[in-house]
Amino acid sequence: MRKLLAAGLLLIGLDAVTGVALAATTCDSLNLPTATAQNSVTFGDTISYSLPILGIDYKSGPGQISSCVVIATGSSGTPETTNPAGFDNAYPTPSGTGGLPYFSTGNPATPPASRNNVFAGQSPTTWDMQVGALKTFLGAGNVPIFMFNLNQVNSGDAENQQLFVWAQVVVKDAAGNVVSPYFYLSAENNNTGLANFGIPGGDPTTFVGTQTAATNTYPLGSDASGFPSGIPCDNGVDPSCGTSGQFMVQAQGQVCLDGPVGVGVPVPCSGPHVGNPINQNLGADDVAFADFLPELDALLASLDPTDVIQIDLRMGCNPAQVGPFLGTPSAQNGLTACPLGSPLNNGFEQVFIIAGSVPGSVPEPSTLLVFAFGLIALGAYSRRRHLTH
């Protein structure tokens, strides 16, 4: 893999690559800038960059990402790639036009493309990879960057371009015992005015949501916490939002900034900001978001090669599991019970892993010390009680 060196336009608080198109056929690695309020948003334990804001054009059609590690992809609902040994093969993402308006790794109707990559510790409801295989793929000095395409329709109301997304990541040993905290891509309380959003320039190490493996079954099964309740996840309107972690992130098809790129932070595309939208709904062939989990990255060196990283990924909305909704239902795909801007309406989203680097991505030593004590306590608990996903 080739290392991409950040070049081009130097903006305040942001190193951006402009006018550069990367060919994912070689699975180019990516150097992301240090996370700031001007170039990234934290969603729980996850730091997320908008590649359009960074000025990076990462090409990623289904055929182009075959040399990367692919979590989910599809063309007519069929996976386009198989992964190396130590990784699950790709899940097929549905077509939102005539197919399911949601996706979940726990859906038995859409398993990975043949589980011929068999290894101890795999789960039927998650996308899994062995730590040793991931380290080999990444190479020395790199961290896993999770790439995501937003492929909603580009017509109609602005809500049509939005999509609900949520993920849970955990490390287990080959016997199925939990050896890490649960990490999340989850909405948080914020002051941006954007519903189901996150915190610009936030600190992912401070997220201590009470999510568990058992309480987040949306969109396939009933959610004991009643997600979604229809209460916006912003401005502290709902005290449980973010801290209880029951809300999915609303990936924005268009995002507006309250200032120029490199200075402004995300705000609703209304009022004085309506003239400054940035399109993030780039389709299946161009990456919209690059995400990484610094706490998981800090753990990798200490994990056993046979440990398994399990990813529970959900997108869209299943109206059969929503229940009463205290807001305006969505007209997308004829759904009558889904929140506006929540369901898959076009489909074939791509989710895959590349190697990369992020300056300052490893937590400070004091944070790691607290983190280590938490792991010791978790290990003691795991020995007393066998935990499964």
Quick structural summary:
This protein is an alpha+beta fold.
Give structural notes.
By secondary structure, the protein is an alpha+beta fold. It has one domain. The chain has four helices and 22 strands. Strands 4, 5, 6, 8, 9, 12, 15, 20 and 22 form a nine-stranded mixed beta sheet that branches. Strands 10, 11, 13, 14, 16 and 21 form a six-stranded antiparallel beta sheet that branches. A hairpin with a 2-residue loop joins strand 1 and strand 2. The N terminus and C terminus are likely disordered.
Could you give the order of the helices and strands?
A: EEEEEEHEEEEEHEEEEEEEEEHEEH
Mean of the pLDDT scores?
75
| Share of helical residues | 10-25%
| Structural class computed from helices and strand pairing | alpha+beta
